[in-house]
Amino acid sequence: MKRKPVIIGVTGGSGSGKTSVTKSICDKFSDKTILVIEQDYYYKDQSHLPFEERLKTNYDHPLAFDNDLLIEHLHDLLDNKSINKPVYDYKLHTRSNKTIFVEPKDVIIIEGILILDDQRLLNLMDIKVFVDTDPDLRMIRRLRRDIKERGRSLDSVIEQYLTEVRPSHLQFIEPTKRYADIIIPEGGENHVAIDLMASKIENILSKKHENNK
Ligand SMILES: Nc1ncnc2c1ncn2[C@@H]1O[C@H](COP(=O)(O)OP(=O)(O)O)[C@@H](O)[C@H]1O
Ligand SMILES: Nc1ccn([C@@H]2O[C@H](COP(=O)(O)O)[C@@H](O)[C@H]2O)c(=O)n1
Q1: Ligand lying nearest the CA atom of residue 194
Q2: Which helix (H) or strand (E) holds 130?
Q3: CATH level 3 topology of 6-212
């Protein structure tokens, strides 16, 4: 019988370097080994709402996410079933019509700001990582990225940061650090931490293969 995939959670504030850390870890393995599931792709579908209404959503609040669907998909992957992963459009603030057909892999990394805030998600994770980066650096990185890649203006990024991102970070995200097994300062450029994570994953995989013999 095929063994269940291992689930690793990678969390941290917006702009902390979650995506960069996840990519650096994935780059050390073949494409067949690690599947990445982004919690952002599981923001609630808002296609029924006019664009102006979508702008009013607080995207840093736990209620913005469709964790039920995320959990259903993780259970499917744990049962070695494929899923149709949603695709999210940050410019339109809703899911796209497209989905991506993905098959389970030995290791699943679930990456997102609020993955440790839901007990059901916590229960599914074998390893929990918190990427810990100072707020000023996170804000600068977010500012650059959101203007370049997410179709935002300088003023809108600052306004959203002050009214939603910062308060929600302090209320919901920062407290989840206590559930992490590993805290990685600074994120994507922390090569020591990334190498340690890669060694741990290699160790898990070799044990899995031993048990499969
Ligand atoms: N160590 C770093 N130094 C400079 N820029 C970085 C660093 N890590 C990430 N970035 C940049 O900051 C932005 C946010 O990083 P990202 O990994 O997407 O964070 P998150 O997924 O936590 O929001 C991206 O544009 C990324 O290229
Ligand atoms: N329509 C949306 C959806 C999300 N956001 C912001 O994205 C952040 C999470 O993504 P990271 O890659 O930065 O972790 C979150 O802080 C939301 O504010 C958005 O601006 N618009």
Answers
A1: 1
A2: strand 127-132
A3: Rossmann fold (3.40.50)
